[in-house]
């Protein structure tokens, strides 16, 4: 009897330190995500014009053909995007991590660039290349007499989305592949497995946590993304419907929030499903730090094939950036395969003002990224290593940020914090730290998924060994868990950082003055007028280079730290 | 280098001093950097001691921002195109009234009152609506440059026209309302749907339209004039014309209630309306029609003058009250009948175009009747202009007491009405074509 009670107690008990961490994270999520979002979203549960609670709005959702059609379109586009993104990402990930390949790091960085498509200009550049009167179609029409509808309808959305979000899979799978111990591969080889069979039976299953983390992010992100459908003018998908309703019909209309609520529900379901697939399987390996898989030398034929495949994929995924670069040097580019002329004037116009934008972007995005990996790492640890009550709720709450439209979060912040003032009368919501918090909340899911996948690959027996040798929990985390997770943490930081750097919707609501504005806001200001297109593209190129340099630097750090660990072994 | 440092130092000192005297004037605006930068420079040069702080938000976000922050307002001015936004702000008591000291300003531009009768907001520039096209695009596709709204119904423009959704763009909403008031409710919607059948896309923001035409993704766009003028000034190969049923409306500025720097806000409004301020509008990147008639003396060759140009005098008398009474209904109707039904509408239109082409030169009364029926089906409306302002419908949008159904239910009903009519129209047109071939 007593034993039973103690057993149950132990199961639900946790160290005071862990309790404190849970409470801190819960308070953070409550204050900067749930409460602000709830101040807006509760409208979904009220009757319009009154404050009576009701569920009739959800009934309306399923009775409205447009919404139901949008729902299924979103499911279709997200699923197909995962398939295509996998096809783009896997070859790059495998070639750069499993083979001795010149420029692997460069490819990892370049393969990452699609995520940092700056708002508006990225869209213009894509249209200029692949639109119905873009370079490719104008040339096709001129020489072969037909056009290809790359950017038309739902399949256009799939095309652009898989180019845009495949880095999620690339990053997470590459990181997983690096963590696999070469002993597993050698054992399989000794038993006679090789080639594709080795990959299918041993390597890919071991990289599964990373793949699922990436694939579920792609699914959810495509499901919740509104920028790309809007750029292609596809309106019958769920996220654009939510956005269009919230921003055009107004804050009092419940249907926009009903759609947001459904977006959140589907996102959480997808995340839960990706976790459920993993349940009951063991992906961790005990041996660590061997510098990952052995890198094979490629034979001549293989090398040609590999370089060919990599070049093809990179050319395709980087085409928007090539378009952006052309646009930034163009004088006029209208209904022609290439610009009429080239100039440096666009850069001349932005160079003076861009330094302040660059500085702000670096500060905001790196702070946001830092907050994200700290929170993401802590939540991943709590979920996977403790039995503390409410740990799954933390996970879900953090992930729901994916589905809350930026503009809803922005308005929620104003509602919650504009009335709260500092002693000198400045509203709390006008401080730029609020923008940092909004950015970190919006990008938390990325870092969380990356940390989660990294943690899944660490065998718990390593920590138990450390504890048996007398280390306490804190020391174990610091000396064992953190170093082993470093790759995942950095991957999470890079994703959060680079996507926060080009975030616009919440920024637009919260930014108070030009001197505090990040680069995305500068872009927005330029891209509202015909004369601003070139300078906007120039600023976009600066943003891309800025984030790419930071990404390259962190890849460099990952590679070096892993080499160092390998050497120590 | 030393000289540069000295200049920088001097300007830094000047700026610090400036803040000490007139202070910072904070303006929330939907205008782009190309518009605000020249005004900021001219204002600060003409009024030493003041600094203009620009916060760029689109019109809707700006209105929401002012609404959310009214308890502790930090904004001095609201500056945007769409008059509706100002009506909304005024109705919510978010604006302060003021009498500008500038004299010699007209009361009306075209047939539109320049200023709010109660002095809450002021027109500083005029804008007319019209049709913009890409010269290279229409040449490559062998299209004629359109002049009137009704020209855009012609089959040659099928899949070449773009427009912003009125629910997404205050200026486009006024264009739609102008057509409805100029041609009447039923005929106006007929025109809109016939033109809609030729749409390539419906854009979700105003600037999306000139952007698509400038880059050549679309051939023809329905836009506000300055988008075309400033694109021409930037060197894009685009043309523009005002159709005869159109209107000019003022773009406005207003002082926000409880402005932290109310005096500074007044100084800026007076500057904007004065001649030096109005001349900034003629800059190549701005190209809006000044409200001050005297400024046109300095305008470049070929710049339209709404006070002298006969086209503008003939423009329709725009009823602002009617427009605001049915604004939500018109926006939602447009979205449900055109924007979200575009594929169906285009399919029906294409079938009608094919049947009409086959009918040319033939005498087949039966086919002719079928085509006329198809036209009538496409043009049919779920309700008339009186019901559009009836409380049964408007209250569904505001959540008022007289509603008989929720907004989502109305939307579903209208969408079904449109989808069924378009499908029936397509069937009739195909039947006509079968008779003719």
Automatic annotation (TrEMBL), chain A:
Alphabetically ordered keywords of this record: Cell inner membrane, Cell membrane, Membrane, Transmembrane, Transmembrane helix, Transport
Membrane topology annotation: Multi-pass membrane protein
Cellular component aspect of the GO annotation: plasma membrane
GO aspect biological process, one term: transmembrane transport
Coiled coil regions in record: none
Subcellular location(s) per record: Cell inner membrane; Cell membrane
Record carries keyword Membrane: yes
Entry's family note: Belongs to the binding-protein-dependent transport system permease family.
Identification of the protein by name: ABC transporter permease
TrEMBL record, chain B:
Keywords: Signal
Signal sequence interval, chain numbering: 1-20
GO CC terms, sorted: outer membrane-bounded periplasmic space
PANTHER family per the UniProt record, alphabetical: PHOSPHOGLYCERATE TRANSPORT REGULATORY PROTEIN PGTC (PTHR30006:SF25), THIAMINE-BINDING PERIPLASMIC PROTEIN-RELATED (PTHR30006)
Name assigned to this protein: ABC transporter substrate-binding protein
